[in-house]
Design goal:
Layout (H helix, E strand, L loop, with lengths): L2 H14 L3 H7 L5 H18 L4 H14 L11 H7 L9 H14 L8 H24 L6 H17 L1 H4 L9 H6 L12 H21 L8 H17 L6 H8 L7 H17 L9
Length: 288
């Protein structure tokens, strides 16, 4: 591996460290373009999740908004952009497709705590729509339905957002909707500690996420193998976190770094399903 490849591979490793199933997936997907694209999405969404000052996050995302269109002519400076510029699939898109995710993330920096889960899910889908479009067009061809991809990506983002709860308490937008906080008489400060009310709110929220995942199965359109496998793992983790006698959030966080006995089969099946979708882009595809 040359120096340039090692540089962009470090971003892939950073992405993979977030979930155990991502590390497993790397053993099945060697495609540099897919790896680079997933790592790029992580870089664009990270400023929304970690406790950065808004102006710092805005500066970073503004840089990305200028950088991403450079993929089209190969003048990108970032290692991930250089890796993507080397993939012929990147040049089947246009500069607006590449720039849109960074612009959506910049816009999301201004978001407020949503009123309820429905509004939160809608906002997340609006944020993830350009990500899902870019991913779907890159892997399966322009014009392919990305409805399912958008829905799944949004739910994965909401779970990731909640995983950074302690960091998000310093930001204007909280991961739990206002309706949930009011129903359980929780303040911003209450979310920092453990209580029966916080556990009840989290279990309720996890049930909402699980129901939303089930609804995704009814949507048309292909899904990349990573999001397919992550959605399966996320749904399993939500179920475990809701079991009595467990602190929901800690259980959810712990299980993100564990692999169950079916994990390898799920990842293999997801990769197989993705490859079928690439060959049959007009068909509707379901998960493993």
């Amino acid at each position: 591996m040359n120096v340039a490849a090692e540089t962009w591979a470090s971003y892939v490793a950073k992405w993979a460290a977030e979930r155990s199933i991502r590390r497993l997936l790397l053993g099945f997907i060697s495609d540099p373009g897919t790896r680079a694209l997933l790592a790029l999405f992580h870089e664009l969404l990270e400023p929304l999740l970690v406790g950065r000052e808004p102006h710092v996050a805005a500066t970073k995302l503004g840089w990305w908004a200028d950088e991403l269109p450079r993929i089209m002519d190969g003048s990108g400076r970032h290692p991930l952009c250089q890796a993507l510029a080397a993939d012929p699939r990147s040049h089947q898109l246009d500069s607006a497709h590449w720039q849109a995710p960074a612009l959506a993330a910049m816009h999301a920096l201004q978001r407020d705590t949503p009123t309820d889960f429905t509004a939160q899910r809608r906002d997340a889908e609006r944020l993830l729509e350009p990500f899902a479009r870019l991913d779907t067009y890159f892997h399966f061809g322009t014009g392919v339905n990305f409805e399912r991809s958008r829905a799944v990506a949004a739910l994965l983002f909401l779970g990731q957002d909640l995983s950074h709860l302690s960091e998000r308490l310093e930001q204007a937008c909280l991961p739990l909707p206002m309706q949930s906080l009011a129903r359980h008489s929780l303040s911003r400060e209450d979310l920092a500690g453990h209580s029966a009310a916080r556990e009840a709110a989290l279990r309720e929220y996890f049930l909402d996420l699980m129901q939303a995942y089930k609804q995704c199965d009814q949507l048309a359109g292909p899904l990349n193998a990573c999001w397919m496998a992550e959605a399966w793992q996320d749904h399993c983790n939500l179920q475990r976190a809701c079991r009595p006698g467990r602190e929901p959030l800690q259980s959810y966080l712990d299980n993100r770094h564990k692999l169950g006995p079916r994990s390898a089969w799920v990842v293999w099946s997801a990769v197989r399903s993705m490859r079928y979708a690439v060959d049959h882009p007009t068909a509707a595809h379901r998960g493993p």
